[in-house]
Amino acid sequence: MITEKVIIVEGRQDKLQLLPIFAEPIEIVCTNGTFSQSRLEELLQPYEYCEVYAFFDSDRAGQQLRKVFKRHFPESNHLYTQSVYGEVERTPRRYLAKVLQDAEFAVKEGYLLGKG
């Protein structure tokens, strides 16, 4: 799959929540809770020419990871879920589709209409 964009998420369930929404090729990479700069660099090395998006939970762990990510990858784009949902995996796909569309990702229309 050829992609120009990559989304970094915390875990597999976040990835599974996001994947069906896209109407374009997208790579989603899981950090699995990684907080070190070297591990993040290792994860992102294959995507050095891609536009990088971080989509982390709004809980404490997600905020800590986002802080590390912003410090070491300041050129990255950040996507946010509402704190009421707490985690990307618990965020309704309709809301996720809107966030992704606002970030100029191609999303399946059914998710924007609440059918997905």
TrEMBL record:
GO molecular function, one term: ribonuclease M5 activity
Annotated ranges, domain Toprim: 4-88
Annotated transmembrane regions: none
Cited Pfam families: Toprim_2
BP terms from Gene Ontology: rRNA processing
PANTHER family on file: DNA PRIMASE (BACTERIAL TYPE) AND SMALL PRIMASE-LIKE PROTEINS, RIBONUCLEASE M5
Protein name: Toprim domain-containing protein
Organism this protein belongs to: Kurthia sibirica
